[in-house]
Amino acid sequence: MKPFLLALLLLPMLAWSGEAAVEVEIEQPWVRAVPPVSPNTAGYFKLHNHGAVERVIVGVASDAASAVEMHTVVEQDGATTMQPLHEVKIAAEDCVMFEPGAHHIMFIGLKQPLKEGDEVKLMLQFKNGDTLPILMPVKRTEDAGHHHHHH
Ligand SMILES: [Cu+2]
Fold first, then answer.
1. What pLDDT shows up at residue 18?
2. CATH code, domain with 62
3. Domain total for the chain?
4. Which domain holds residue 131?
5. Distance from the CA of 104 to the center of ligand 1, in angstroms?
6. What does the alpha-carbon distance between residue 110 and residue 67 come to, in Å, rounded to a whole number?
7. N or C: which terminal CB in the chain sees fewer CB atoms within 10 Å?
8. Is 151 contained in some domain?
9. What is the reported pLDDT for 21?
10. Residue 150 lies in a domain
């Protein structure tokens, strides 16, 4: 097949690919396995923005818990507390980490216990209307690796 013809065939696919999935890449998603008595847990991932424009996460949703929020951890008067984030910006060609001790996805009121090997579906909602579904495997902390400890 001539390259020109091939390019013509690819055009419709490129035009159709304006969705978040193309420009936004998720790495190492995981949700912390917690004992069955624990009503809450947290999820983490690294998000790359390969696009030329800033992306803003304005919402998160999941069926796994009665409420899902973006949180960050701040130090106040020597104590660390969690604070809700209403939006998280990712500059063009940049990335943002959701990791233990920092930004995280908070699952509040788990509808059923999460055990290792389960997968949690999370939907990211962006300011421009795009949505991005993520599958987050449930892992114990020590298995997740790849995160930094801040002391
Ligand atoms: Cu939290």
1. 46
2. 2.60.40.1890
3. 1
4. 20-142
5. 6
6. 8
7. C
8. no
9. 56
10. no
pLDDT digits (tens, 9 = 90+) for 27-62: 999 999 999 899 999 999 999 999 999 999 999 999
Interval 7-36: pLDDT, tens: 555 555 444 444 555 689 999 999 999 998
Q: Which two tokens stand for residue 28?
A: 């190492």
Is residue 110 situated within a structural domain? yes
**Residue 98 within a domain:** yes
Distance 85 CA to ligand 1 centre (A): 10
Q: How far apart are the first and last CA of the chain?
A: 59
Please report the pLDDT score of residue 44 as a whole number.
Answer: 97
**What distance in angstroms lies between residue 42's CA and the mean position of ligand 1's atoms?**
7
Distance from residue 71's CA to the centre of ligand 1 (Å): 5
| Of residues 67 and 150, more confidently modeled | 67
- Strand segments, DSSP code E, in the chain are 24-32, 40-49, 55-61, 65-76, 79-85, 88-90, 95-98, 104-110, 119-126, 131-139
